[in-house]
Amino acid sequence: MKTLKIKNSTEEISIGKIVCVGRNYAEHAKELGNEVPEKPVVFLKPTSAIIFSGDGIKYPPFSEEMHHEVELVLLIGNKIKDASLEDSEKAITGYGVGLDMTLRDVQSKLKSKGHPWTIAKCFDTSAVISEFVFKDDYTLTLDEEIFLTVNDEERQRDKLNKMIFKPAELVQYLSSLMTLDEGDLIFTGTPKGVGKVNKGDVIKAGIEGLVELTTKVI
Ligand code: MG
């Protein structure tokens, strides 16, 4: 069982499933040659993929093109299914920043065959997360900027309000597909600027004024 840490708190929360959304920023969808979806694109990561700020990302031997994707991560605080928009908003109990590390070369081959993306998304260390902040302690306005640097060079920076589907809308849609439980994490998609990382790279990412993480590719 993996647990996440809450900023300025001794509380630890057991992590449930990890539900990820793809193509939730129009400019990112375009940079990979994808159409902007009418509904969120949804996939899962296993909890075995999770590491924390300060840990290292391991390059799997079956890829030569691992990409960084920085994302706002939502923490679900109570069980919901087929929730209203209002109940979906209430079910979001905290926020963090995460990296959805992606094997782009593997994903491109899978996409061309119409196969699931799992192998490109599920490897150990492919989900890096920060500490989380409870919603009671911070009101997210979506005017915040999300950013990522590689070796102190900025690669991604955008306002969260560029998300096509906003947090409560995502949670509502996901709750129509599956039960969401306390401790589940929702990765909400990445803005434009994704790119390859190499062994030895130091990645820093965050949401201005809220949370940050640091990791190294090893
Ligand atoms: Mg992603």
Explained architecture:
It is a single chain. The protein has 218 residues and is an alpha+beta fold. It has five helices and 18 strands. The strands form four sheets. Strands 3, 4, 5, 8, 9, 11, 12 and 15 form an eight-stranded mixed β-sheet that branches. The chain has a five-stranded mixed β-sheet with strand order 6-18-17-13-14, with no helix packed on it. Strands 10-7-16 form a three-stranded antiparallel β-sheet. A hairpin with a 3-residue loop joins strand 17 and strand 18. Magnesium ion binds next to strand 3.
Please summarize what this structure is.
With 218 residues, the chain is of the alpha+beta class. 17% of the residues lie in helices and 36% in strands.
Regions with little confidence, pLDDT below 50 for 5+ residues: none
CA distance, first residue to last residue: 24 Å
Number of alpha- plus pi-helical segments:
5
What is the CATH first-level class name?
A: Alpha Beta
Small molecules in complex: magnesium ion
Strand tally: 18
Count of individual domains: 1
CATH architectural category? Alpha-Beta Complex
**Radius of gyration, in angstroms, nearest whole number:** 16 Å
What letter string, H or E per element, gives the SSE order? EEEHEEEEEHEEHHEEEEHEEEE
Q: Strand-residue fraction?
A: 35-45%
Coarse structural class: alpha+beta
CATH topology: Fumarylacetoacetate hydrolase, domain 2
Average pLDDT metric: 96
